[in-house]
Specification:
The complex is a heterodimer of chains A (about 500) and B (about 100). Chain A has about 500 residues and is α+β, with helices and mostly antiparallel strands. Chain A folds into three domains: about 10-140 and about 170-315, no CATH class; about 325-435, no CATH class; about 440-500, Arc Repressor Mutant, subunit A (Orthogonal Bundle). Chain A is built from 16 helices and 17 strands. Chain A has helices at about 10-15, 65-80, 185-205, 245-265, 310-315, 325-335, 340-345, 350-360, 365-380, 390-405, 410-420, 425-435, 440-455, 455-465, 470-480, 485-500, and strands at about 15-25, 65, 80-85, 85, 90-95, 105, 115-120, 125-140, 145, 160-165, 170-175, 215-225, 235-240, 270-275, 280-285, 295-300, 305. In chain A, strands 3-7-8-11-1-12-13-14-15 form a nine-stranded mixed β-sheet. Chain A has a three-stranded antiparallel β-sheet with strand order 6-5-16, with no helix packed on it. In chain A, strands 4-17 form a two-stranded antiparallel ribbon. In chain A, strand 7 (about 115-120) and strand 8 form a beta hairpin. In chain A, helix 10 (about 390-405) runs antiparallel to helix 11 and helix 15 (about 470-480) packs across helix 16 (about 485-500). Chain B has about 100 residues and is mostly helical. Chain B is flat, with a radius of gyration of 22 Å. Chain B has a two-stranded antiparallel sheet with strand order 2-3. In chain B, helix 1 packs across helix 2 (about 20-45). Classes of the chains: A alpha+beta (about 500), B mainly alpha (about 100). The interface between A and B is large, with 59 and 39 residues.
Chain lengths: ~500, ~100
């Protein structure tokens, strides 16, 4: 594999302006396929979810799945698209063993949805509008496994094995208009856009939206032009970039590669690129050529789809609250600042906090636990925060114990660790580990006297009104009581003792 | 006369995966032009009041409910395959057309 020259991202950005475009394929989670009644199920034995329609046998006729059309319309509406009053399917003709028919049934110049947009919020809150050109219905292709030759890659393969279980699975392909003006945010925008599409189709319930299973697949188009030039540069299309992280990396890499090509004075070749997760690079697929002459024509075996206004409005009425609107509502309900809320969203714990609040915690307690304790632990364990195994009820119980003064915050985090280690409920752990706040003032006063005697200069400062110095004394008391004192009460007692009012 | 030259025919033949000899290409170049002209005459017959159509029957929205129907077994699915392996169709490797 030859290694392409690349420029640093910063240098590429100094010299060039990136233009992006995305084609995102969404597999619908209908029970059956787009045009046949064979089941749409992932992971079954090869070639068992097929019938004569999926195998393209002579004389068979496709019949359109009503639910798939409704799901497609819902996706179009969620992407703020217009829904076509009338549209047809078309045959996209090509020879490749992933389709047994030698054509893919798709839509060409009459997509079911068109002219939409999505407002994408970047990590710092900047909102970037991505215009949607179209969303059209089509069918997925079979799955090829290349064998022999070099491992798994088509180059050098001796033969391929084909499983048609996926052939005919309903797809909606969402195509953006060229995205200009993203500048150095382009890689981040790419990731955020695909994440938003995935969130929308998942929220609609029309797709399982698992990228690792190929339910959502992204082809990323990248081109560069010198700053100030209107005309687009020549683009490359990086295929099947199948994780959010990979989308960001692939766009970044292609920007760097294009910049190096342009710097060398060569033209960029318009071609398909393959993304390699292991090296985080792309390699050349094939140049665009007459192989892309698909000779589309209207599908004679299917009749047009006519979406009446009544039908579309009926479907619109079933749409769930859009993810962006939900975020706005939750932020307002919880009273988080923009920054606090953005951190919550970026940490991926919005749903968890919502559940914790529903279980009885206040918004600030829920945020304190998830953001202050659980996110960091999840990061260390290299899992998503939601997968760490913290139940909302645990947080509610912990915060209640703190409020009632049974344990202090430091102990509460210890109890949380115990819960995560599987030692039992918070109450059981408090019992077992002997964690309880010393509430009898006697031992506290002794410890306070000792701490004040040990640091007379600090005691003087506090007497003089420098209240921030109190931390040193509180620290000494906490040390002496092995962390079992209630820091709030200790503070009160120190001030009382020194005759200072807070 | 429609302009269909030998190169056009060779291009179409390649797209359609049809092998054609030099003589066949020459002959088809002439014949296809005549065929295209014949089809063209149909559009002359249709006035502005006749919309283009892809289907002769005035039908819309023929749908199927999303209910699972019949499937083949892998054995049935592969019964007509020239070659198979591991319950899958076995095909020659096709380079760089993915």
């Amino acid at each position: 594999m030859s290694t392409d020259a690349i420029l640093s991202f910063e240098e590429a950005m100094e010299k060039y302006d990136p233009v992006l475009g995305f084609e995102v394929h969404v597999e619908l989670n209908t029970k059956t396929k787009m045009f046949s009644s064979a089941p749409n199920v992932f992971g079954d034995e090869p070639n068992t979810n097929v019938n004569e329609v999926d195998l393209g046998m002579p004389g068979v006729l496709p019949v359109l799945n009503r639910t798939a059309v409704e799901s497609s319309i819902k996706i179009g509406l969620a992407l703020n698209c217009k829904i076509a009053d009338y549209c047809r399917f078309a045959r996209k003709n090509y020879f490749y063993p992933d389709t047994p028919k030698n054509f893919q049934t798709s839509q060409y110049d009459e997509p079911i949805a068109y002219d939409g947009y999505l407002d994408i919020e970047l990590s710092d809150g900047t909102v970037f509008r991505v215009e949607i050109e179209r969303a059209h219905m089509e069918e997925d292709a079979g799955k090829l496994t290349h064998l022999g030759g070099s491992a798994g890659r088509i180059q050098g393969a001796d033969y391929s094995l084909v499983d048609y279980n996926r052939a005919g699975v309903p797809l909606v392909e969402i195509v953006t208009k060229p995205i200009e003006g993203a500048g150095s945010r382009a890689p981040e925008l790419a990731k955020a856009y695909v994440a938003a599409v995935r969130e929308i189709v998942k929220n609609l319930g029309v797709s399982d939206a698992k990228m690792e299973r190929g339910n959502v697949r992204c082809d990323a188009n990248v081109s560069l032009r010198p700053h100030g030039r209107e005309r687009f540069g020549i683009r490359s299309e990086t295929k099947n970039v199948n994780s959010l992280r990979a989308v960001e990396h692939a766009v970044r890499y292609e920007i760097q590669r294009h910049a190096a090509v342009l710097d060398s004075g060569e033209p960029v070749i318009q071609e398909t690129r393959h993304w390699h997760e292991d090296t985080r690079t792309t390699t050349s697929g094939r140049a665009k050529s007459d192989a892309d002459d698909y000779r589309y024509f209207p599908e004679p075996d299917l009749v047009p789809v006519v979406a009446s206004r009544e039908w579309v409005e009926e479907l619109r009425a079933t749409l769930p609250e859009p993810p962006a609107a939900r975020r706005k509502r939750l932020q307002a309900d919880w009273g988080y600042s923009d920054l606090e809320f953005r951190d919550v969203v970026n940490a991926g714990v919005m749903d968890e906090i919502e559940e914790t609040i529903a279980a009885g915690a206040t918004a600030s307690v829920a945020r304190k636990w998830w953001m202050g304790e659980i996110v960091g632990r999840a990061k260390n364990a290299d899992v998503d925060p939601g997968q760490l195994g913290v139940e909302p009820a645990t947080i509610v119980e912990l915060s209640k114990m703190v409020e009632e003064g049974k344990i202090n915050n430091k102990m509460a985090t210890e109890v949380l660790d115990g819960v995560l280690a599987g030692e039992g409920t918070p109450a059981e752990i408090v019992e077992k580990r002997g964690l309880a706040v010393v509430s009898d003032d006697g031992p506290l006063l002794e410890a306070i006297d000792a701490a004040l005697a040990a640091q007379p200069d600090v005691a003087d400062k506090i007497r003089a009104g420098k209240l921030q110095a109190i931390g040193a004394i509180v620290g000494g008391v906490m040390k002496a009581t092995r962390g079992q004192a209630d820091a709030g009460r200790v503070k009160e007692l120190i001030l009382e003792k020194l005759g200072v009012s807070a | 006369m429609a302009a269909i030259n030998r190169d056009d025919v060779a291009h179409l033949a390649r797209l359609a995966h049809i092998e054609m000899s030099a003589e066949e290409l020459d002959r088809m170049a002439g014949e296809l032009a005549v065929i295209v002209d014949a089809v063209k005459s149909v559009s002359e017959a249709a006035g502005d009041d006749v919309p283009a159509t892809s289907h002769p029957i005035p039908l819309n929205n023929v749908f199927r409910e999303d209910v699972v129907g019949h499937t083949f077994t892998a054995e049935q699915a592969l019964s007509g395959a020239p070659d198979s392996d591991d319950n899958r169709f076995k095909v020659p490797a096709i380079l760089d057309e993915a």
